From TrEMBL:
<comment type="similarity">
    <text>Belongs to the enoyl-CoA hydratase/isomerase family.</text>
</comment>
<dbReference type="Pfam" id="PF00378">
    <property type="entry name" value="ECH_1"/>
</dbReference>
<comment type="pathway">
    <text>Lipid metabolism; fatty acid beta-oxidation.</text>
</comment>
<dbReference type="GO" id="GO:0006635">
    <property type="term" value="P:fatty acid beta-oxidation"/>
</dbReference>
<dbReference type="InterPro" id="IPR029045">
    <property type="entry name" value="ClpP/crotonase-like_dom_sf"/>
</dbReference>
<dbReference type="InterPro" id="IPR045002">
    <property type="entry name" value="Ech1-like"/>
</dbReference>
<dbReference type="GO" id="GO:0051750">
    <property type="term" value="F:delta(3,5)-delta(2,4)-dienoyl-CoA isomerase activity"/>
</dbReference>
<dbReference type="InterPro" id="IPR001753">
    <property type="entry name" value="Enoyl-CoA_hydra/iso"/>
</dbReference>
<keyword id="KW-0443">Lipid metabolism</keyword>
<dbReference type="InterPro" id="IPR018376">
    <property type="entry name" value="Enoyl-CoA_hyd/isom_CS"/>
</dbReference>
<dbReference type="InterPro" id="IPR014748">
    <property type="entry name" value="Enoyl-CoA_hydra_C"/>
</dbReference>
<protein>
    <recommendedName>
        <fullName>Enoyl-CoA hydratase</fullName>
    </recommendedName>
</protein>
<keyword id="KW-0413">Isomerase</keyword>
<keyword id="KW-0276">Fatty acid metabolism</keyword>
Length: 292
């Protein structure tokens, strides 16, 4: 599996799809190590379907394998981040082919769900930090997507909903597995069991987002500042720090301490460590070069 997310266990994120002509997403690279992953179908409210998830599978392998990318900002063109699942395009895939046996239909649906899970799980498993910059609607699969991100910021007009519940669907792409650790058990259950809309102020109150900004322009300015601040650090250390935090989410403190001791024993003595010391004494900005 080349270098694609090879620091993970066997999970849905190991799925590989290679795409060269992207229509749902656009990756804008900058010279300072920050890349912007833009959902770019505003006329369709950046809605999600099978092609969308396949593009996500592909684009995150590109991000992972590009050493020049140190941090990613995820945002959407148009009136909002995403309206979630495109039901009109996806319903036939969900309901299956009547000419197939029920067992075959069930297997095909299971495989599709696992592939879709993998596309958003790649955000979480990617060693590069991902900042979600959310404006307007963030519905259904949008919440699956942002809860896989490392940091979430939003504008004051942002609206969040685990809308699947109202559509007689169990949210199945990661929200239910991640949101309790983000907002706490009680509020996570309130969101998931009601499917109601949550405004930006409430999202901030419960920790779904770190900060709320007055509008989309300000949101993107602040997201870019944060991404640049991250990108100035040693990319090797930033990536290993993210992986250490991920590991700590589902392991004991003792297991986490053992892992980070092994990690630092393996990676601490780098050119970046020497550069950090030299730049401190020479009173200049460090120029880090090491990568994972």
């Amino acid at each position: 599996m080349e270098r694609s997310l090879l620091f993970t266990n066997t999970t849905p994120s190991t799925a590989i799809v290679k795409i060269t002509d992207y229509k749902y997403v656009r990756l804008d690279r900058t010279e300072n190590g920050v890349a912007e992953l833009v959902l770019c179908r505003p006329k369709e409210y950046n809605s999600m379907d099978d092609d969308f998830y396949n593009e996500f599978l592909s684009i995150f392998d590109e991000i992972q394998n590009d050493d020049k990318i140190k941090c990613v900002i995820l945002w959407g063109e148009g009136r909002g981040l995403t309206a979630g699942l495109n039901l009109s395009k996806s319903l036939s895939s969900i309901m299956g082919d009547d000419e197939q046996s029920q067992a075959k239909q069930n297997v095909e649906l299971f495989k599709m769900i696992r592939r879709w899970q993998g596309s958003l799980d790649k955000i979480y498993k990617c060693s590069k930090p991902v900042i979600a910059a959310i404006h307007g609607a963030c519905i259904g699969g949008g919440v699956d997507m942002i809860t896989a991100c490392d940091i979430r910021l939003c504008s004051s007009d942002a609206k969040f909903s685990i809308r699947e519940t109202k559509l007689a669907i169990i949210a199945d792409l990661g929200t239910l597995q991640r949101i309790q650790k983000i907002v706490g058990n009680g509020f996570a259950r309130e969101m998931a069991l009601t499917g109601k809309d949550i405004d930006a102020a409430t999202a901030a109150k419960f920790g779904l987002v770190n900060n709320v900004y007055k509008d989309k322009d300000t949101l993107l300015i602040e997201a870019r500042k944060m991404a640049q601040e991250i990108a100035k650090n040693s990319s090797l250390v930033v990536q290993l720090t993210k992986l250490t935090l991920n590991h700590a989410n589902d392991h004991s403190i003792d297991e986490g301490l053992y892992r980070v001791a092994l990690q630092n024993a393996a990676f601490l003595k780098t050119e970046d460590l020497n550069e950090a010391g030299a730049s401190f004494f020479e009173k200049r900005a460090p120029q880090f070069k090491s990568n994972l």
